[in-house]
Structure prediction request, 273 residues.
Amino acid sequence: APANINPVVVFHHGAGHSGLSFALTAQNMKNLTKGQCSMISIDARGHGETQTSNDHDFSVTTLANDLANVLKTLYKDEKPDLILVGHSMGGSVVVDVAYRKLLPNVVGVCVLDVVEGSAMDALASMNRILSTRPKHFQSIEQAVEWGIKSNTVRNLESAKVSFPSLVRASETGGYQWRTDLSKTAPYWTEWFNQLSSKFLGSPVAKLLILAGTDRLDKPLMIGQMQGKFQLHIVPEAGHFVQEDAPGNTAQCLVEFWKRSKRLVLPPKVQIKK
Prediction:
């Protein structure tokens, strides 16, 4: 990338969430990098403010192509160094972009709190978990309050930023979820199948940030012992690591960015004979 173009950290949220899930992490990163790093956080199709001709196609291939197409359109010929950061479902998306080499200028990929083994195990209980979520809220404030009381997000400051984007005014009054997560069910297995091998096989620098040490599956345990990726644990956070611990997450991402920067060699000096 040309020396005058800032590297870009690209955030992709998880299912049912929005780009604002990374608001506080991005704010912390901006302060830590003093403007040396640009950041983008997108709303995936069927989420947040994004609308497409098919808002119910949540296949990992489609979502990865969406992300790549947005970045190609945005940067055209500039090609800044990119670090892709994905949370949960978004982790599968950014890994797919890196693994399939959809963008030539990706220098690093970071996955937040999703591991193939534990994710596949958890799918059996997903419908039960969804059935316990309220379908409607009387106000946006009530949605934020539910986010905290349900322990979905543990940081009130972040919930106040992210949760308003997760609901929409309902035709019958009050508010309902922007994204119907039950519509994503056909894609759950696909999101996480082969995630570990694709992550380990991506030809870029790799970082895995987890909320607990018990979530590594066998391929990742072996990969970590072989030094194939960096592992960072955030014990004070729940699943939404970037919201619960934005300072810790930002610090880790900034250090990862600095380590992943391309080495720019000085021009060769011609020695006179």
